[in-house]
Structure formats: C-alpha cells, structure tokens
Amino acid sequence: MKNAFAVLTTFSLLSPFATMAQAAQDLPQDVSPDRFSIFEAPLQCPAAPEIGCGSRAKPILLELERDSNVSEAWLNRAGTRIALVWKIDSTSDARRTVAAKLKKQDATEVAGKARDEAVAEFRSGKGWYRGTSVDRLSEEEAGIIAERLVRRIQVKTTLTGDNAAGLQRAIADALKKRFTDARAKENQDGLLKSEHGLQEAAKPYLTEDQIPILKGAIASGLRPLPNEK
Hints:
The protein is an alpha+beta fold. The protein is built from nine helices and seven strands; from the N terminus they run H-E-E-E-H-E-E-H-E-H-E-H-H-H-H-H. Helix 5 (about 135-155) packs antiparallel against helix 6 (about 160-180) and helix 6 runs antiparallel to helix 8.
C-alpha cells in the first residue's frame, strides 16, 4: 500500500447519474455508526478534477479490504474521502494501525461533529464507489479527456460531425482500456511518450494531414490547460 498513491491517474462515457446509482446500490445501511471511519484523502483526478481518480484509488481500496480488520473501503465521487467499514471484531488498536498507514499517504481521519456529518453523508448513498467499481470513474475520465482532445483538434482543423463523434468514441475506448485493463496498464507510462496507440485508434477518423494535429493535442498533456475545462 506504500506506493499506491503513486499509481498513474485514470476514465466514462456513462452518465454521472447512472454511475452514482451503480455505486450506491450496495452501500451498507444496517451497520452500527461506530463501525465507520471517514478519511480526507487527496485522490482527485488531475485530468478531470471534478471526480476521483479510479486508477489511483483502486489499489488503495483493494489493499485496505485485504486487511483483516476492514470489511469495506469506499471512495466518494469527488475523490476527497475514503470511508471504511470495520469488521465487528476489529479492535481500537487495529483501527489505529490502519489509520496510521493511511496518514502516511496524506489521508487524515475526520473526527468529532465533522465525522458524524461525514458518516451521515456516506450512508445517504450518494456517489460512493467500492473496489473495482471505481473503474466507472476511470471510464468517465476517459470520456472527459477524449472530448478535450477532440476540441483541441477542432481548433486547428475541420472535422465532420460523424468523424468528430467517432474520433471521440475511439479515443475514449482506447483510454478506458488503458486505465482499467491490467495488461494495458502495464504500458501506461508510455502514453505521453508514444502516441501510437491513440493514433491507431484515430486513423479511421483523421486524414494523414490531421494526424500531426492529434499528436500536438496529446503532447499538450491530458490535464486541462488554463483555458480548458
């Protein structure tokens, strides 16, 4: 878990409302309040700051749930909080040990009245993701980035409506696979060093003269520039 926060960011064409519904459906309701802990955590996605980063959060949540004292670990949609549901037999000392590990990763436990409010918000079931369900955030991020790249391309060249829509889908699908597929993720470090994968996905929708424009859009980075959202 020590290096989990260093995992690269990750992306959805799904509606946010649909993903919220999917994420919330299994939230624990019949659990004593003393079995919850909430932590502030810096897990927003740099490429899509309005949502949490699925690829950074996923290994953290899965690692937490491998702890014998943790029943469930969840991330909120904004990527700003982790919620833990402790096992019934977990001790105070064991909980403090887990909290200390999270603190080393810049996650701070919420206490007092703020903690009570955070637990109530968690139990309301609005936009929380457990384990592999954070892939939905990664898919959403893929859609956001794809739309951003297409807008950059359209500033410098004309795309027909069908080509623009197809290009956006192709880029989003390529990114989604990269950020959620374990085998594709092995080569994730090469995303900005080599645009080959995205170029291949984009070929059906761009002319040869437009490929360098795509390369330039990627070279500007996946994160929003000052004039972008």
